Amino acid sequence: MCGIAGYIGERNAPEILFDMLKRLEYRGYDSAGVAYFAHGRILVSKDRGKVNDIRKNLNLGRESKLGIAHTRWATHGEPSRENSHPHSDCNSQFTIAHNGIIENYKELREGLIERKHRFLSETDTEVIPHLIEEFYSGNFESAFVKAVKKLRGSFAIVAISKSNPDMILLARKESPLIIGLGDGENFIASDTPAVLPETRRIIILDDLEYGIVKKNSVTIKDLETGDEIKKEIREIEWDIEEAEKEGYEHFMLKEIFEEPNAVRNALNGINKTEEIAGKLKNFNRIYFVACGTASYAALVAKYLLERFGIPSEAIVGSEFRYSTVNSLGSDCAVIAISQSGETADTIASVKEARKKLAYVTSVVNVVGSSLTRISDDVIYTYSGPEIAVASTKAYLGQLVSLTLLCLSLAREKGNINEQYMNEILDDLHKIPDKIRQVLDNEGEIKKLAEKLKDKKIFFYIGRRLNYPTALEGALKIKEISYVHAEAYPAGELKHGPLALLEEGVPVIAISPNDDLKEKMESNVQEARARNATIIMVGEDGDLRVPVCDPLLSPILYIVPLHLLAYYISTAKGLDPDKPRNLAKSVTVE
Length: 589
Ligand code: G6P
Description:
This protein is an alpha/beta fold. It starts with a strand and ends in an 18-residue tail after the last helix.
């Protein structure tokens, strides 16, 4: 994620661009910047921080009619002024902003450095203006096209040149880009909400298209052939908030539908997880620490390691910091898990652990967040910004990163055979498509939610790896539907909670096709005998999930439970994005 914007017309470009950035901030918010043409030069102002703070500190007084801007969600390089966009070439002739990931940036960068190009940032993006510079021999458009053709990966790019202050060039592959058509002015943005206050007429750029945007014209061409393409002009009827949610009713629903992508992105971290596993094998004791949803990812990781004979503990931050920490020493490794990287109890746990000389690696979504700065190593999940308070897609990112880490550690210790490891990895790569199949079943889940919406209490039961799935399913209902939900290891039901079961109480039983399936059946029978309403989650359950290796079931089986919680909340007429009394980042004790 990241948001990019462009403006060409008669009004003051930087002011308009910052207004657009503000509406793109939901796509990223760790740094922002603007580049505009004034007095024969391109001026760049950028910094780490939120759009409004940066805007306050910048001098945008100069009159300019052309510019581009960017709000960043860091991927390559931590949030800093140097890594903020826009980026320029050696002579500040070409300036660009980019959203996406350039996969071959390392080799491009090495080649450019050999040709004496000077780089100022750690970003993948900076190769683009230097490539344009390299190919330039008097024609901006042709140099831009040649440069873009060298890129592998995903991109949405806007580019300006100080020799051509009458145009903005843009190109797209797999990252969104639209053009808003004005009267004697045109706007470019990652997404429709940014341009809606200015115009409702938009052109959507498709993959492998590029464009030349002038104040009175827009030309779109095929990146491969250079042929001009006639594009449809769409009239947008959504309001701004609807557009930010890309048509989904809530951010939470949008984020649940982004779960396949969260899995794909976390899978890209495999090299890093292998590197960290190589370090972890040298420690005698491993502790996972986290809060809320992330603490359930921690618990899954503990069960995974146990599966391969490696002992570990999973403890919530608020307990770890005052208790577990007393027993730590330099033979301990702590793995801290957090979406935001800002949760106070998790951060305090890590600080205390470091005082005891423990090694710390963190599994984090927000690049450059506080937790990443106090950890020895970081594994990023790259789930993209999560806006809804209740965590969903970030949980899947955490599960995938931790699964990779645990498998690699098992291999380091010689506790998993290579063939089995490869089979699981193969299956892991199929999980995004399997999640998609669960999401396709949305209609059924919604109907079930309607039936359950007035229930006063819910039970979630699971065993082993899916006990945490039960905890996460129950937490989601509590957070956004305000009903009581209990999560229990299925075998513990008979030691107390069974007394609460009576006719019609929903018991959601997470039952993957593993060696404990029959045991699970027995526990379900105990509840059925009390006339509870049983909802099985499994390959042939009421909430159906595709076949997968039982070790990966926590990643797949939570998806219908996220959807169920969402639809129960909306069926009750609540706003799942903003649950009462809760905050997205809990930065206090
Ligand atoms: C809050 C959020 C939860 C989240 C927890 C931990 O309670 O409402 O959704 O799981 O914090 O947050 P973290 O950013 O550390 O993962």
